[in-house]
Amino acid sequence: MTPTCGRLLGAPFALALSLASVPVLAQSGDAGDRPPMPSVMADLAAESLLLDLAWAGAERLIAVGERGHILVSDDRGRSWRQMPSPVSTTLTAACFVDAERGWAVGHDAVVLSTTDGGRTWRIVYRDPGFEAPFLDVLTSADGSITATGAYGLYAEAAGPGAAWSDRFLDGADFHFNAITPTPEGTLLIAGEFGEILESADGGATWNAVPSPYDGSYFGAVASAEWTAVFGLQGHVFVRPATGGAWQPVATGSTVGLMDGTVLPDGRLAVVGLSGTILVGDPLTGTLTRHQLPDREALADIAVAPDGAVILVGERGVMRFESLDALGTAG
To answer: What are phi and psi of 273, to 5 degrees?
Structure first.
């Protein structure tokens, strides 16, 4: 089954707001490392800051966010219930390989895993001494799991039952905000200062590739036809799967773009600050801009098989019956 990862781009959104049977691996030897505290069950968790969405199978949707909140919906986003979480620090991203097995990452360099569709979670990696968050997580076709984060943080496990190890990909301390597989069969990381890294060997080695932009990328999304990266000032760039250079995509927006998804019809949907939603085929060079009337900052988007649109962000969860219900920005 194709991994159903949310990306995070809710991730840098979280970083911006929060910075203004596997053993736990704690890489820091600091005796002052803080022990984890479980998240508090809250009646209004669905209305708190939420940063990422991930499908666990065809019907179940998982949302993660501040205070370690983990929410589950079994009716495509109509109703939500909070699940116990072993941490109270912000969770920034989640990813599922199938209906049962998934991972969530966040602050204190924490990785959580679930084997029952998000009902229960446990810590499989944590490094509070590093004082940096993971910002995205990806499960690959070979079963490996990779988490990327702030200040060059990168950790991986060979499979669900394997131990985790960490390393740093470069000496620049860049934030690696998003990781995605590409249609060319590589892995791609997008980050600060126009950083784009690509791996042709499943993450064993990474190489910088030419970037069309020197500002920060907050997200990366790929379909069978294209790979798109996006971030500051409404910038979106697309690279066709058939090859060629990155090309700019007109968005009509200058806000930070935080995360996105591939729609069931193959189009791209991206969300960002000021309630911005961009939708369209990036290969045409133009995306249509929608905007929520209250302009709440958005962190991620998911679209159900019936066309319902689920958004998360600073106001928590929002659900619309269709993309058309979002309206079009003037």
So the answer is: -70, 165
β 153-157/164-168 pair status? antiparallel
Number of domains in the chain: 1
Q: CB under 8 Å to 55, separation ≥6 — which residues? A: 4, 61, 62, 96, 302
323: which 2 tokens?
Answer: 């993309």
CA distances to 15, 134, 147, 237 from 108, rounded to whole Å, are 12, 8, 13, 32
Q: Find all residues with CB under 8 Å of 242, minimum gap 6, and list them.
A: none
Pairing of strands 145-149, 134-139: antiparallel
d(CA 223, CA 288): 18
Residue with tokens 């065809």: 58
Token pair belonging to 102: 């998934």
Query: The domain spanning residue 110 has which CATH number?
Result: 2.130.10.10
Domain boundaries, position 233: 4-158+166-326
Distance CA 323, CA 314 (A): 20
d(CA 289, CA 249): 12
pLDDT digits over 268-287, tens only? Answer: 999 999 999 999 999 999 99
Report pLDDT digits (tens) over 174-218. Answer: 899 999 999 999 999 999 999 999 999 999 999 999 999 999 999
Letter for the amino acid at 240? P
How many residues are there in the chain? 330
Q: For residues 215 and 233, is the Cβ–Cβ distance under 8 A?
A: yes
